[in-house]
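Retro notes (design track)

What went well: tokenization of the new backbones is finally stable.
What didn't: we kept losing track of which sequence belonged to which structure.
Fix going forward: every design gets posted as structure first, then sequence, in one message. First example under the new rule, 98 residues:
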């Protein structure tokens, strides 16, 4: 997977578009830390692309819930599930801010 710095993102957008066309994904970094995953799309596929990304986020939350259950908690209550989802969202938000 290609890694793109924020500087390259700003100064060489054409090269980035070309790289995405060939590689199909790239990691955007700031000071060496990943902050985003870039994937190509266009006007005709944007809705499908966003739906796929949203499903992936849901699977991430489900994985965290299942991992919590395997940690000895047994059956999770609705409140426990909501707490795991909230923690996952906060952790993702912190990762995005770097």
């Amino acid at each position: 997977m290609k890694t793109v710095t924020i500087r390259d993102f700003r100064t060489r957008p054409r090269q980035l578009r070309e790289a995405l066309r060939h590689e199909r994904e790239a990691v955007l970094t700031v000071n060496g830390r990943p902050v985003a995953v870039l994937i190509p799309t266009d006007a005709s596929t944007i809705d499908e692309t966003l739906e796929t990304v949203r499903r992936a986020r849901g699977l991430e939350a489900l994985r965290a819930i299942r991992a919590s259950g395997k940690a000895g908690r047994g059956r999770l209550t609705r409140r426990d599930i909501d707490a795991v989802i909230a923690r996952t969202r906060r952790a993702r938000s912190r990762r995005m801010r770097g």
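Added context from the reviewer: The mean pLDDT is 84.
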